[in-house]
């Protein structure tokens, strides 16, 4: 895979396998139900990359284990603003001054489950966050660069359109000027004819 062409490799070192998720610099691969991964770690890496590009911090949340051997069978990955902070009081009151809570009860998450085929599959995806997303400087710079490119192209197109309009307006003004000159000549001819008629009008009257 050529990283210079904007592809990014997300690797899972479990079992020595490598998973690659190609994505362009200005595109985001979004999770969806049914998406498969070779391992739990691969799913974590993918969702962490998705979180970074979208603008939130991933939190590794609850899991479900096998009652027989304790293996993890399912896992929830979500936003670090999931849930609410619970105040913990000591035996004789607060242990220390509570810090401002960063949790806002955000529901955004994915639920991954180990299936019979040996893959980890997304069984649920909640996209919406209840708080503003903050894009990292790298992504913000890429977004800004893309916006600048779009505005540059738009400005170039506007300049071309203005040049075309100016050309059409110049051609129209030239036509108007030509018609105006022709009309002036016709008016002058009429005036000359009237003057000539006025000069010979007494003679015509005498002849009657």
UniProtKB/TrEMBL annotation:
Pfam families: FAR1. It comes from the Eukaryota. Residues 141-200 form a coiled coil. Keywords: Coiled coil. Residues 46-134 form the FAR1 domain. Transmembrane segments: none annotated. This is FAR1 domain-containing protein. The lineage of its organism: Eukaryota, Viridiplantae, Streptophyta, Embryophyta, Tracheophyta.
């Amino acid at each position: 895979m050529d990283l210079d062409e904007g592809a990014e490799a997300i690797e899972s070192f479990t079992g020595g396998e490598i998973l690659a998720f190609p994505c362009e610099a200005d595109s985001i691969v979004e999770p969806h139900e049914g998406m498969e991964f070779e391992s739990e770690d691969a799913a974590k890496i993918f969702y962490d990359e998705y979180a970074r590009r979208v603008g939130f911090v991933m939190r590794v949340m609850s899991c479900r284990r096998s009652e027989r051997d304790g293996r993890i069978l399912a896992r929830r990955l979500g936003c670090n603003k999931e849930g609410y902070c619970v105040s913990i009081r000591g035996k004789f009151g607060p242990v220390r001054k509570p810090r401002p809570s960063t949790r806002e009860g955000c529901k955004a998450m994915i639920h991954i489950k180990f299936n019979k085929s040996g893959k980890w599959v997304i069984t649920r995806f909640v996209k919406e966050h209840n708080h503003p997303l903050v894009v990292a400087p790298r992504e913000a710079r890429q977004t800004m660069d893309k916006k600048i490119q779009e505005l540059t192209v738009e400005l170039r197109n506007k300049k071309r359109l203005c040049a075309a309009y100016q050309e059409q307006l110049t051609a129209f003004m030239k036509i108007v000027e030509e018609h105006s000159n022709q009309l002036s000549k016709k008016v002058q001819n009429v005036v000359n004819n009237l003057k000539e008629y006025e000069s010979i009008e007494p003679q015509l009257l005498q002849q009657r």
